[in-house]
Prior knowledge:
Rossmann fold; GMP Synthetase, Chain A, domain 3; five-stranded parallel β-sheet; 15 helices; disordered N terminus
Amino acid sequence: xxxxxxHAPPGTIDPRPHREAVVVLDYGSQYSRLIVRRIRECRVYxxxxxxxxxxxxxxxxxxxxxxxxxxxxxxxxxxxPSLPAHVLDLGVPVLGxxxxxxxxxxxxxxxxxxxxxxxxxHATVTIDEPGHPALAGLPATPVAWMSHGDxxxxxxxxxxxxxxxxxxxxxxxxGTAPGGHAPVIGLQFHPEVAHTPQGLDLIRNVVLGIAGCAxxxxxxxxxxxxxxxxxxxxxPGRVLCGVSGGVDSSVAAALLHRAIGDQLxxxxxxxxxxxxxxxxxxxxxxxxxxxxxxVAVDAGADFLAHxxxxxxxxxxxMVIGERFVRAFEREARAxxxxxxxxxxxxxxxxxxxxxxxxxxxxxxxxxxxxHHNVGGxxxxxxxxxxxxxxxxxxxxxxxxxxxxxxxxxxxxRDPFPGPGLAVRVLGEITEDRLAVLREADAIFVQEVKxxxxxxxxxxxxxxxxxxxxxxxxxxxRTYGHVVALRAITTDDYMTADWARLPFDLLxxxxxxxxxxxxxxxxxxxDVTSKPPATVEWE
Length: 538
């Protein structure tokens, strides 16, 4: 078993599969995570690393191919991100996308120049070399998505153009790495976005055809790898697993239980920030379906006491992250008498949590928000972390949950943020404000389920905005709360679109909230996608 990666959290073992992999080097593109998603859709493991990740960190994944992402820089500018020497020295196929293509051309002796007008949007591509393996099966004139202000104007020695557009004579190039035979391909367009209809076919050609990867990365193979890694990390030690009832923590607990059995104790902490009736229903569901020893803890008073007066979203996450750990520590001390101390704390951390928190392993990514279970952990953490899902996206976690035999009510449960309603009550957290939100949220979710739309949505919830509004209720002037409704569609939670819910459904929800929650006199609907917004409001 490999030793812990140098960028993994202290005290953890690398939970990634030790199978064929593709490395995506991130040059600051908003699409880098989409490249990873598309490769995984080919049933090949992929991971994004910063473009300047140390060579040994790249080699540790034993990549069968390297993909260079796009980015906002220009290769001819001072200080622009460069091409590390080990990329070509590895002797594996290299694919450069947008800035990645320009970087390869510049590094290998070609020329890159700014275009007269930035090209953004759809373009018709002409395949000039239809026999090239990367373009196999594509139509003669596919549509592709362009987003660039520079382009390659002179090819590197030994390279040839294999595709073009009316404004970009070298829309794709192909050649080999100097001194070797590894294919090098550059694309000025973006195959990873949905706006390039045949983009997945092209990526599949590169990953499965040119790189020769086998499509063997499945939920079943991940479970096998994860069980091996968990057993190697934990040994005979005892593990405390925080569970919320959501799919992430439930799948983590089920996976751990399959790996180590009775060495696992699951702890459900009612932090006082849960939805209406959630603590009762979650505990009942977990006890019925997980088959693990479950301890339920009521820590609501502790959480609310430490959140008193806290209004900044990042500060809320830090407080909540620490209070969760302190609750786990208390339970670990109380349970130690039954079988010895707990050495490990398990969490359902996912890849988007790691990326958005901008940890050292994803430093090329901008910090969006600190997830309470990543950046919100205290420095004096008394446990070693076990995070078997750390490199999975949400849909992959659901596939693993189904493969583990978990029921749909857990696998397809509407995701709920670890900080709970604290990030849906904007501003200060009080019992009264939480009560208002719980009632409004319950009405919204109930009506969406009654309409038969719940399963097709990524998330459905209400937000207490902090704004106040003048209204008329029962012939009296009121000055009440404004509640926002949020429903999204998404595959991976890295990007999301607002759900086009029927107007009559929204009208029914708004009417019920205004009539049944007397503190609220105005309801609005959030029609913002991610990006520019995040899924949650805080």
